[in-house]
Amino acid sequence: MVTVVMRSAVGRGSNLSSREYRAEDLPRVLDIFDSNVPEFFTAAERQVFEDFLQELPGPYFVVETTHGELVACGGYAVVLEQGRADLCWGMVSRTHHGQGVGRFLTALRLEAATTDARVRAVVLNTSHLTRGFYERLGFTVERVVVDGIAPGVDRCDMRLELLR
After folding, report:
1. Which of 1, 25, 78, 83 has the least CB density, counted as fewest CB within 10 Å?
2. Which stretches of the chain are assigned E, i.e. beta strand?
3. 132-136: long-range contacts at Cβ-Cβ below 8 A with a sequence spacing of 24 or more?
């Protein structure tokens, strides 16, 4: 079983908290997206992301500092017929990269997604730029599609098998 404990201080002494995404978060969530263009997302994906937020397939969370600064967002969707949870649209504001916020967000989503005993695996697709981050969390690469996200940005399909 995946055990997740990520409630520690991150960066400049700020503690992180999480909550469900609300429609009024849209401008700040889009700011997080924009801060990651062009390295992690393409400008063309912005509308796809915005459309996703209008029709969420499952829980979607935001992460805030104690000062109310929204610094990350991400969600998941459960595909019960395949016994899996798909992590979707996880991102951290560029100014907070490397401060443990991504680990906090991923732990939050894993913890929530795996409360359903029928979920036997967690999957995601990401770029080669963040592949190592997820490998350090126990995910393995199932497939790499060269230029699968954009020219020069490979798509990595990854999986984490849950031990139950």
Report:
1. 1
2. 9-10, 14-20, 60-65, 70-79, 84-92, 121-127, 140-150, 153-161
3. 133/102, 134/106, 134/158
Q: Which two tokens stand for residue 145?
A: 């599609």
Q: What is the CA radius of gyration of the chain?
A: 15
Cα angle, residue 15 at apex, residues 11 and 114 outer, rounded to 5°: 105
Q: What is the pLDDT of residues 28-65, one digit of tens each?
A: 999 999 999 999 999 999 999 999 999 999 999 999 99
Beta strands (DSSP E) in 4-139 are 9-10, 14-20, 60-65, 70-79, 84-92, 121-127
4-36 pLDDT, tens digit per residue, is 334 443 444 458 999 999 999 999 999 999 999
What number of helices (H) and strands (E) belong to the chain?
4, 8
